[in-house]
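Notes from hallway chat w/ T.B., transcribed later so I don't forget. T.B. wanted the structure written out for a chain they're using in a teaching module, and asked if we could keep both sequence and structure tokens in one place. Agreed to drop them here.
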Amino acid sequence: MRLIALIALLSFTVSLTAKTPGGNSPLMAEKSKTYPYLAYLPDGYNKTNAKAWPLIIYLHGSSCKGNNLERLKKYGPPFYLERGMNVDAIVISPQCPSNRNWTAGAWFESFYKELKDKYNIDSSRVYLTGMSLGGFGTWDIASRYPEYFAAIMPLCGGGQTRMVEKLKDIPTWVFHGEVDKKVNLKRSVQMVSALEEIGSKPKFSVLKGQGHGIQKVYSDQTIYKWLLSQHKQAFEKFMEITSLWNPKVDSVNTKHSTGNEKKDLIVKEFPMQQPDNQESKPGAKSFLYNLFNKKPEYKQSTLY
């Protein structure tokens, strides 16, 4: 009896291992004239079909730089997509070379053109996100090419406050850990404050008790629902209408908080959720996804 039980257990282990991430990965390694990347195509995507799909471009942090695309699967969207998470969009994760960063050079425009030529992309629904080094890259690239993006979502990054004039019309959701020791919270505070001063209304989530490693944000379907609900053409039309009622801002005050002054910051509650499709798609992937996806707790409070 014990022998039968042992054989059954070994059979289950083998079958589970055969389906672990990497064995049947939903992420495809692709070459490019600029940077190589991992590509995720949503359920129902068909190149021969005329349907255009939203595009999410994810920029990784410094620890994933190099020439091995497998490194991108350490965290962020590639980590969760590899483990069974589903997103109703094309997700592209380029890899930055070891000797560069996302803000260096004019790589993005040619990279985006390649994506447009290769995939069926809805140009009114292109989104940019990244964390740490990628968070800085998100602020920078969006400020240089604002016409491409329907929304951006930088995590634990920062930028120059002079960028905000180019960013003011882009829906933005900023995340930062309350006790981040690698990239100080004030870097996001400065960008959010600068946007607010010129009339923009970014979403800002400061994660209670969290440090630099806030990559679990990418496991929650809430952020994807928000991103995919933003449409560039609809937003531009809205801004065109509202501009008839609101005076145009002619100048930008570049004197912003340094983090020393007393400033009220609401720490947003951000409950982590299981992806909507996990119940409808049981199996090894959803088991592994739940195994690895331990959720942090976020509470409301006020920072000073």
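Follow-up for T.B.: The longest helix spans residues 2-18. Might be a good example for the class.
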